[in-house]
Amino acid sequence: MKKNGVQAEKTILAAEARVLFGKKNKVLRKKGLLPANIFGSGFASQSISINYRDFSKVFRKSGETGVIYIKTEKEEIPTLVKTTQRDPIESKLLHVDFRKVDLSIKIEAEVPLNFVGIAPAVNQGGVLITQTTKLLVEALPQHIPHQIDIDVSILKEIGNEIKVADLKPNEEYLVKSEAEKVIISVTAHKEESVVAETTAAAAPEVLTAKPEGEAEGGEEATKAEKPSAGADAAKPAKEKKE
Q1: Helix, strand, coil distribution of the chain in percent, nearest 5
Q2: Which domains does the chain have, with CATH numbers?
């Protein structure tokens, strides 16, 4: 856990060297173990397995910004959770990548935002628009905050917004995101205009007398029934009876 941006207690997670890889990792999962890797700059990557339940408890508290000490047979390695792989159907964890960190060197990490308070502008018909949910910060690994609280109670009128530049400086970490980046804003609520559908009365069908000689089926039928001039010319003339 972290208090005031500083990790209050040391989080340790036991691990064992892993010798199974690929599809064989299913054997580990059936035993309640989670395949994982540790990697880092100037660090020889290690393949490990950890207890699934133990990691789940630790990860709920530390997230991706809390330092987790991976305890192997030889040492305790300070790490951050880099990526997690989950089953797309059951959402169970399948694999974890840990990033080995040096506690004396500052690093950059994305920290989630936590919006608190009530914006008075909402009572004026405003709508809160969240522009980003994370900010990039730079700090020593143990000083990276678990989350950054954003107080929206200062949004009193429609059109107000909170930018990165509006955040109070913190001694433990430096926000690296652009100062003009908008975090959250208030816009006017636009109601969808409902246009009444005017149902026009259908015009009555006007029945008129058909022109003389027009057959059922309209103009096309008429054309079909009337022989063409060329057809009449083609018929042999009747012989006159003497």
Answers
A1: 20, 35, 45
A2: 2-101 (2.40.240.10), 108-188 (2.170.120.20)
